[in-house]
Amino acid sequence: MLLAMPDRTVMQPPEAAAGAQLKLLNEYQRDFPLITRPFARIARETGLDEHQVLTTLDEWRGNGTVSRVGPVFAPRRIGASTLAALKAPPRILDDIAEMVSMHAEVNHNYAREHEWNLWFVVTAPDAVSVARVLRQIRRDTGCEVIALPLRSEYHIDLGFDLVHGHRTTARAPRVPMRPVDMSVEQSRLLKALQGGLPLVSRPFASVAHRIGVSERTVLDQIKAWGDEGVIKRFGVVVRHHELGYRANAMCVWNVPDALVEAMGARLAGVERVNLCYRRERAGTEWPYNLYCMLHGKDRDEVRARWEQLRSDCGLRDYASAVLFSTKRFKQCGAHYAREVAHA
Question: pLDDT (tens digit, 9 = 90+) per residue, 55-105?
């Protein structure tokens, strides 16, 4: 879509503007410029101007194409989180989902095709807070809830190529991921960044003013967190559904513990696998421990890819399930703490 710009803007031919906007959406999901005026540099590199870049991103954020522009934090480096699921009576699923989404600590909440039909992620400053939220959800909904904390991450989230449908090839570090201890100043920066950058000419200066530090302090800390693996990527966070990838499925397997690491590494090497990780089982209620996410234009494409995965990765002998998403109730960045009030 082309944006109506003020008279001072030199408009490009429609096809050129569309190409520039695709580049903006596709190429800045990672390696975002960590400089004083990042959107001015992006404008030069895309052939837009700074005002167009900011206006386009703001429109995309407004219509849901983009969740935010900012960091994706590593889940085991700061705070605590878990994937969880519950069994909601189908006739009141929407009502139950609304109760779950009301919790600020819930950042993803989806209905999926399974007996366990509502799946959500809880993120909080610590494990005690996560457990408290899960207890509240059990109490408020009257539904059984299972928690499925992360054990190993085989493919990390570095964005998604919207031109070719490929993910950025990367592997999660094969070293223990320990939580980092944060100073008061670092915690304030985390709180200010978790909802995304303000879409202004000097976003890092705006964040710095908000928490009472220098712009250089903000930029240096973001770079340091990237080097340390606290931030997995920094850039435009897109939503697949709004961009045409309307079918997504969580695929799970019950793999023997002695083999799951090798199977996870093999699965993570497949081009079309968007995320891949190992989680705790939940006893006989939920015996699966190996997960991956698949996205596609339609269900047939996703199911065919799942069948190919089972064959190519030697997973046919293990119990498995494919849980297609049927409704998205909530999707936003993880909030590890409450937002900082504006100065």
Answer: 999 999 998 889 899 998 887 778 889 999 999 999 999 999 999 999 999
Rg of the chain on CA atoms, in Å: 21
Among candidate residues 235, 275, 72, 244, the one with its CA nearest the CA of residue 162? 244
Token pair listed for 185:
């100043």
Q: Which tokens go with 222?
A: 């973001």
Helix (H) or strand (E) holding 331: strand 320-331
pTM of the entire structure? 0.76
Sorted by where each begins, the domain ranges of the chain are: 1-63
Q: Which long-range contacts (CB under 8 A, 24 or more apart) does 215-221 make?
A: 215/36, 217/185, 218/189, 219/34, 219/35, 219/36, 221/186, 221/189
pLDDT at 9: 38
How would you classify the pairing of strands 320-331 and 290-296? unpaired
- The 3-state DSSP class for residue 134 equals helix
Task: Give the amino acid at 314.
Answer: G
**What is the end-to-end Cα distance of the chain in Å, rounded?**
36
Q: Are 52 and 173 in contact (CB under 8 A)?
A: no
Q: How many Å is the maximal CA-CA distance in the chain?
A: 65
Phi, psi at residue 302, to the nearest 5°? Answer: -65, -45
CA distances from 117 to 11, 86, 184, 283 (A): 48, 6, 39, 18
Token pair recorded at residue 226: 């990237």
The helix/strand/coil state of 12 is coil
pLDDT in tens, 173-220: 444 456 778 899 999 999 999 889 999 999 999 999 999 999 999 999
In angstroms, the CA 130 to CA 225 distance is 24
Q: How far apart are CA 108 and CA 332, in angstroms?
A: 7
Nearest residue to 252 (alpha-carbon basis) of 148, 130, 109: 148
DSSP conformation class of 282: B
Token pair of 268, please?
């993570």
Contact 156, 171 (CB under 8 A): yes
Q: Which helix (H) or strand (E) holds 221?
A: helix 215-228
